[in-house]
Amino acid sequence: MLTDRVLRNQGKPQLYASQFMLAKDGSLVPEPTMDLARVDERRAMMGRCRLRSIGVF
């Protein structure tokens, strides 16, 4: 999402966990995200899949 990309470019944590990076083991992990406990709620409000449903958390 554009919101997340702008926040990350400003050095701030993202809201919707839409930006990922490669971990040392080669897996994709979300870049720093604000309030991870509620990220799935925010994603659902935007019509995006829940990260827990795809095994990210």
Describe the SSE topology.
Blueprint: H1 2-9, E1 20-22, E2 28-30, H2 39-45
Antiparallel strand pairs: 1-2
Overall description:
- The protein has 57 residues and is an alpha+beta fold.
- The protein has one domain (2-54).
- The protein has 2 helices and 2 strands; from the N terminus they run αββα.
- It has helices at 2-9, 39-45, and strands spanning 20-22, 28-30.
- The longest helix has 8 residues, at 2-9.
Summary?
With 57 residues, the chain is of the alpha+beta class. The protein has 2 helices and 2 strands. The radius of gyration is 11 Å and the shape is globular.
Structurally, the number of domains stands at: 1
* Average pLDDT metric: 92
Number of helices: 2
Strand content: 5-15%
Order of neighbouring strands in the sheet with most strands? 1-2
Compute the CA-based radius of gyration.
Answer: 11 Å
- Uncertain parts: none
What is the ordering of alpha helices and beta strands? Answer: HEEH
Shape: globular
Helix amount: 25-40%
N- and C-termini, Cα separation: 19 Å
Q: Which structural class fits the helix and strand makeup?
A: alpha+beta
Total number of beta strands: 2
Q: What would the keywords be for this entry?
A:
globular, alpha+beta, single chain, 57 residues, 26% helix, 2 helices, two-stranded antiparallel sheet
